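User: Can you help me understand a structure? I only have the sequence.
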Amino acid sequence: MDLDTIIRITARSLSRHGLVHAYGHCSARLNDTSFRVCPPMPMGLTPVGAACTEVPVSGQLPEGVLGEVRLHQQIYARDFEIGGVIRFMGPNLIALGALGRVPKMRHGFGCYFHPGAGYWNDPQLVRDEDRAIGVIDAMGTSAGVVMRGNGAVVRARDLKQALVLAWYLEDAARVELAALSAGLAEDAPTIDVAEAERRATSSGGIFERMWDHLTHADPEYRL
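Assistant: Let's start by predicting it. Here is the structure, written out as tokens:
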């Protein structure tokens, strides 16, 4: 499956599962100096066969590319092992971020963000390089960062894995909100970093099975 097809499938799947609406974007690394990003439109409306745009890892964004794609640039420039980035708007993450909180490591899916998701305490859109740098600095060594009332960003070794991590982070936010709603957030158990590192496995087709689950209804999906 070629890179543009994976990007299009990911974009539509994010929308189908409620992780984006009119806003959000995803990308996949092409090589050491460039990546490809989804078309600048609501992700669920991405046409079959639509061309994605090549973007340099450093320098000016090409004409028509959304300003927040600077977040992707910052990630790819810092870590050559990262192959996929998603900026998304999960409703539980937006609510949790607006409360000034991030999901704690309370269940298996949350463990994939050890030592804990980052938090960017600024509600403004990230349309300049300084803010993009700040957001990714706030991510630290985690696979994800929550933005104050503004969704989240995840990164992974490839875009398929990033799609799974986006779903995992949104589910971790769901669990955190449930703990808060029950009044148990301060007393309920959490998983320590060492345990989380062991739990965050990729063996046994963990990512592959969730990718198939999230994308199987897509018109370009194929096993």
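Now, to help you interpret it: The helical segments are 3-16, 70-78, 91-98, 129-139, 159-181, 193-199, 206-215. Strands lie at 25-29, 34-37, 53-56, 84-88, 118-120, 144-147, 152-156. Let me know which part you'd like to focus on.
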